[in-house]
Each structure stands twice: as structure tokens, then as C-alpha cells.
Design a protein that fits this description.
about 200 residues, mainly beta, five-stranded antiparallel β-sheet, 2 helices, about 50% strand
Length: about 200
């Protein structure tokens, strides 16, 4: 069965975003007919998604938390860190690393900790998935291809691993760098298609 959709994203203010979705299905005559209307409201401050679906004259509503609280692992005391690793990625990017302590001179990216989390997408459309990921990773311009793959694969949840680094210049923290990998399974063996990895977010502090 073939589907297509029209979606509009509306910023409501107060950290809330509404996505209006119209889903059309291809009938036997080769014509797309309206199948359902879906209104999704995502609250970035609470991590709550509210999805209201109207189909065949009937309305249903579900509410769930789409952001799981991140768990910190592999945390390093930066005041004690001396030997820092060099980062090498598939895109040939090399992170700036040296053996300085955070209080020393120079500009250094220091590994701090790993975050493990997950994001839920039950009942969400492509635009809603993209918006939810944008809330979970605010400094990443989420490719529509990633959201489309999540919907295509019928994933109700993805699992995230994020490595967090802080930049120091003359002993002052000046930036945060996050590298994230997004997986289709809890064992973290298969990456969600649609983007090169790691996903990078940099925030100047």
C-alpha cells in the first residue's frame, strides 16, 4: 500500500512545537485519498509528545515521553586528566588533543564522559521524528533522510551514544563538543541510515 503525506511544523512558543500531518493512501483507482489527520505536539521542556489521530471520523489520542534521561558513563576527572586521546573518524577529522592539563595554556579538547540515552518515536510522522531529534540534539541540523529512515524502518525507539568533550583555553572552559552515534537496536550494532557519523554538535561557552 502506497502512502504520501503533507506536513506543516508550527512553533507554538513556550518550548512547544505542533506538527499537522495529512496522510493519503493510494486507492485501487490510482488516486490518493485522505486516510487520516495527525496532530502532534512536542514539548521540549518536559519531553512529552501528544499525538491526536483522526481517522474514519474517530479520534484517538496518545501521550508519551520521547526523551529518555541520559546515563553518564566513563566519566573522567578533568582536573586529574593528563594523557588525552587522539580522535580519528571516518571523515578523516582529527580532534585537537595534547597532553596539557585543562589548567595549562593552549586550546585543548578534553574527553569528559559518555552519555547513553534513547529517543522514542511511537506514532510519529517524518516531520515529527525530525522535530523530536532536533529537541534531543539541539545543535544538530537533523537531515530529513534520518527521520524518513526511522519511519521507513518502523522504529519506535532509537538508542544513542554520545561522547562529550570540553575545550579549555588558559584554564577556562570555552566550548563543548559532542559526538553521537544513533542506533536501531539496544545492542548498538546497526546505525540509523541517512547521515555520516559521528553526528557532531559544538557549543561555544
Amino acid at each position: 500500500m502506497s502512502y504520501k503525506g503533507y506536513e506543516a511544523v508550527i512553533e507554538l512558543g513556550n518550548n512547544k512545537t505542533k506538527i499537522n500531518s495529512q496522510i493519503f493512501v493510494l486507492d485501487r483507482k490510482g488516486t490518493y485519498k485522505l486516510d487520516s489527520n495527525i496532530v502532534t505536539v512536542l514539548d521540549a521542556s518536559t519531553g512529552i509528545a501528544e499525538v491526536t489521530t483522526t481517522k474514519n471520523g474517530k479520534k484517538s489520542k496518545v501521550e508519551f515521553s520521547f526523551i529518555e534521561e541520559a546515563v553518564i558513563e566513563n566519566e573522567i576527572d578533568l582536573e586529574e586528566a593528563v594523557i588525552l586521546e587522539e580522535l580519528t573518524f571516518d571523515n578523516n577529522e582529527i580532534g585537537i588533543m595534547n597532553n596539557d592539563r585543562p589548567g595549562d595554556g593552549g586550546c585543548t579538547w578534553c574527553f569528559s564522559h559518555t552519555l547513553n540515552s534513547s529517543t522514542w518515536f511511537s506514532h510519529l510522522t517524518v516531520a515529527a521524528v525530525q522535530t523530536a531529534l532536533s529537541i534531543a540534539f539541539p545543535n544538530w541540523i537533523v537531515p530529513i533522510a534520518v527521520a524518513a529512515e526511522i519511519v521507513r524502518l518502523n522504529l519506535t525507539r532509537v538508542w544513542n551514544t554520545t561522547r562529550v568533550y570540553y575545550r579549555y583555553q588558559w584554564g577556562v572552559m570555552t566550548g563543548e563538543r559532542r559526538h553521537t552515534w544513533i542506533y536501531t537496536d539496544s545492542f548498538k550494532t546497526t546505525l540509523v541510515p541517512g547521515t555520516p557519523y559521528p553526528v557532531e554538535e559544538i557549543t561555544n561557552l
